[in-house]
Design brief:
Low-confidence stretches: none
Order of helices and strands: EEEHEEHEHHHHEHEHEEHHH
Mean pLDDT: 89
Radius of gyration: 20 Å
Number of helices: 11
Number of strands: 10
Shape: globular
Strand order of the largest sheet: 6-7-8-3-9-10
Distance between the termini: 60 Å
Helix content: 25-40%
Length: 271
């Protein structure tokens, strides 16, 4: 029986996570726990190991040692499609859209891993294939409608290459939503955007949690975005977690200041 005093279990847990390429350590015994409906941001200078964390969580790399647990189950070393089917989706720092496919086709492409109809059933338009196609259509429409007029109406049939950069970013998130994740990993969602677009992205990330109930792990360099969305912030440097806490705690931590600027706060004040 679950009581109010029952321990709160993390949705995602990194346990002494280490990733090495020969003699080079990209991550060194990183510890992290993320709970349901949290938004956690990972910050750090280039080369800090941020994307390496995403790559291990999503199965691009297997950890050298340590473990990754999702909903209490170890996922270290599992295939990428198996991890997606468990409920983890991601976007990428560099857009990975099918530019010659329509907006709606881009989103539908993310759903076919969940369908069961065989190629023959699809070709012959048998009942299961028709039923699943309706489900795919509905799921794509639902994912795109989250972004309102930005990705609705006539845009559904437009090729992705005609979209603005900001709308391509939105489309990539919509495609991730179509996999029906519990945990969403966003890799620099505000990269390359102007201030107005950045503000909209900040609102979108908050809505993903508040309206869809998602748990979100974000890599972001824009500190305005990090400050605006984060329940907690984790700072990395050279693959090592150097601190964790609220935005204010992390942003003023001497090790974080030194990692970004190369000098401690006292030296900066004297300068």
């Amino acid at each position: 029986m679950v009581t109010d005093n029952a321990p709160r279990l993390p949705l995602l847990e990194l346990d002494k996570l280490t990733l090495a390429f020969g003699g080079l350590k990209a991550l060194t015994e990183v510890e992290l726990q993320i709970y349901e409906r949290e938004i956690v941001s990972v910050i750090g200078p280039n080369g800090a190991g941020k994307t390496s964390i995403f790559n291990v969580i999503t199965g691009v790399y297997s950890p050298t040692s340590g473990d990754v647990r999702f909903a209490g189950e170890s996922i270290a070393g599992k295939s990428q499609h198996a991890i997606t089917n468990l409920g983890i989706a991601r976007t990428f720092q560099s857009l990975r859209l099918f530019l010659n496919m329509s907006v709606k086709e881009n989103v539908k492409a993310a759903t076919y891993g969940h369908t069961k109809a065989s190629p023959a059933e699809s070709i012959l338009r048998l009942p299961r294939a028709r039923r699943e196609e309706k489900q795919v259509e509905a799921l794509a429409a639902k994912s795109l409608s989250f972004f309102g007029e930005r990705l609705m109406g006539y845009r559904w049939d437009q090729p992705a290459y005609v979209l603005s950069y900001a709308n391509r970013r939105r489309l990539e998130i919509a495609r991730a939503l179509a996999t029906e994740p519990r945990l969403l990993l966003l890799d620099e969602p505000a990269a390359g955007m102007n201030p107005n677009e950045t503000h909209e992205v900040t609102e979108v990330i908050s809505r993903l949690r508040d309206e869809l109930g998602l748990t979100i792990l974000v890599i972001e360099h824009d500190m305005h975005v990090v400050e605006g969305i984060s329940d907690r912030v984790v700072a990395l440097d050279h693959g090592v977690k150097i601190t964790e806490g609220t935005f204010e705690q992390v942003a003023t931590h001497p090790a974080v200041v030194e990692a970004y600027l190369g000098r401690d706060p006292e030296a900066l004040a004297e300068a």
